[in-house]
Write a structure and sequence with these properties.
Blueprint lengths: L1 H49 L5 E7 L2 E7 L5 E11 L4 E9 L4 E8 L13 H4 L28 H24 L7
Antiparallel strand pairs: 1-2, 2-3, 3-4, 4-5
Length: 188
């Protein structure tokens, strides 16, 4: 009798597990397109913040980093947006860096960070990030590091400030040859 009860218990457990797995896969199948659409809209909104006049986007891979090429209504290339990450004081900092066709920073956005609240977290604020607008590769250093540097570090958060500047430099370095040479997106 005990053997029959154990077998029945195992069979019930297997049926419940298979049913739950099937139902979960069905929920995922229904939700997956909606999730992907939401991600696409979020990315589009972020790109619109950096290039408001952008109408068409094309995703490519440059090296290890995802890059979005942005075009206007007429199909003229406005610039590129690089997704990058660097290590700050509190861990990884995820960035979006918009670069125009002249090789200047269009805008920098911090997507996610774990920096110290009240100190390093201030690197995500507009007052700090605005310093990067229209800078070139040579200017993307803290003022205390190099004479040509244009970035004021946040007091008490030098590591975080330096990390953002480094991340923006790396992004611009990645795009500098294609932006400065005027080559097309086909050359990427």
């Amino acid at each position: 009798m005990k053997t029959k009860e154990r077998v029945a218990g195992v069979v019930i457990l297997v049926v419940v597990t298979l049913t739950a797995g099937f139902l979960l896969s069905q929920v995922y199948a229904v939700a997956s397109p909606r999730i992907e659409e939401q991600k696409r809209k979020e990315k589009e909104n972020l790109c619109q913040e950096i290039f408001p006049e952008g109408k068409k986007m094309e995703d490519v891979q440059v090296g290890q980093l995802p890059v979005t090429i942005v075009y206007d209504q007429a199909g003229v290339k406005l610039g590129q947006i690089v997704q990058n990450r660097v290590t700050g004081y509190g861990g990884e900092i995820f960035l979006l860096v918009g670069v125009d066709t002249e090789g200047k920073i269009r805008k920098v956005k911090v997507l996610q960070h774990n920096e110290t609240p009240g100190l390093g977290a201030r690197v995500a604020q507009g007052s700090f990030l605005k310093q990067f607008d229209q800078l070139t590769l040579e200017q993307l250093y803290l003022k205390t590091e190099r004479p040509e540097g244009k970035i004021d570090a946040i007091s008490g958060a030098t590591i975080s400030s330096r990390a953002i500047a480094e991340g923006v430099r790396k992004a611009l370095n990645l795009l500098a040859p294609t932006e400065k040479s005027g080559s097309s997106e086909k050359d990427l």
